[in-house]
Amino acid sequence: MTGLFDAELAQLRSAHLARQRRQVAPALPPADVQPDDEALRGTTYVIDGQTRLSFGSNDYLGLSQHPALLAAAQAAIARYGVGATASPLVCGHSPAHEALEHELAAFVGLPRALYFYAGYAANVGMIPALVGRGDAVFSDALNHACLIDGIRLSRADLHVVPHADLSALDAALQASTARRKLVVTDAVFSMDGNIIDVPALMALCERHDAWLLIDDAHGFGVLGEHGEGTLSHHGMAGLKGIAAAWQGRMHRLIYMATLGKAAGVAGAFVAAEPSVIEWVMQKARTYMFATAAPAMVAEALRAGVRVMQDEAWRRDHLRALQARLREGIAQAQLPWTLLPSSTAIQPLVIGSNEDALGVMAHLDQQGVWVPAIRPPTVPDGTARLRISLSAAHTMAQVDQLCAALAQAASASKR
User: Fold this and answer.
1) Cα–Cα distance between 182 and 159 in angstroms, integer?
2) 341 and 225 within one domain
3) Out of 93, 181, 218, 233, which one is annotated catalytic?
4) Is 139 a catalytic residue?
5) Are 41 and 98 in a shared domain?
6) Active site residue 218
7) Which of 57, 154, 190, 390 is catalytic?
8) Tens-place pLDDT, residues 24-61
9) In the annotation, is 181 catalytic?
10) C-alpha distances in Å from residue 56, one per residue of 43, 71, 138
11) For residue range 298-335, what is the model confidence (pLDDT) as tens digits?
């Protein structure tokens, strides 16, 4: 039996598709940096024993090392301990979790929110609670794996729609005779960095009496006036509530966002009409049958949401870094394609798996870590470096990355 796995592992390696797990820890700041100084926090890591400047994490606002979040978690440990002890529906739902859900709902401008211990668990549990046999799900071709897996588990009829193709979605919805229709999409696509047109999707869902589920994993905290996410980016809802033009129209929207990326901690939440959230809480197996996240995580997240609102400079700085990176790559005249993106995700398409790994290795030799992303995460022939920017990065660090890329391009020509 094990020989079969050995042979298949060898095939992965020969196709340059084998993944390598690394030991990663934040680098300790220099002796002259004070504990509350954010210099180097969230950008410099020790990776397999080597210090590297990292552009690989989803810590878009640099909150994972923020003193306010660390202090909130430490205070919660003293109050609640380090474990939740049971599922939320038994005794794992603390006052910290309750307060977090109220604050998240108010932050994104929707009536009620439900907190899950992980984003994957939220989607895998929520979708089968919403739809089943006899229903139809319309899924963007580039949706994240957790959405795809949730759809499969639901046993609803699956219709894969070409990426961001509104005309194709319109036709698919029109042709469907399913009793219940659910359109499912990422809000910001994790490997391309583009933002979906949520108002246009909502209009289609209204026309065809469908629900819309958006996964805002990479928009929450980064987009919107206060970091409320993609709904705020489109002027639909946010900290100020639901926009007048969308009053009475949001009942068909189900909003999900993860909290281990820009929010800096862990978990995810779903927000929607109260009856929808109540139903998900009653039926999502990943909510009912899993131990809750510790209360210290909830308290750290509450602090993170406050920081998002109070420190708008983080989003401003992130946008400046994006502009600096794109300008630097354009000036370097690299032989690779930087996809258009106005988010923290800046994908540089290399092409083959082997070439992407080679460029990653050249950067690593220069002390810069950018992960190479290969199939099945991205389509064949589009292996890429997924450059992730953080508000913790400096302009000088972005310049260092651009210089390293230029050197890698020069080396690849030899």
Assistant:
1) 10
2) no
3) 218
4) no
5) no
6) yes
7) 190
8) 888 876 555 454 444 446 798 888 888 999 999 999 99
9) no
10) 9, 26, 31
11) 999 999 999 999 999 999 999 999 999 999 999 999 99
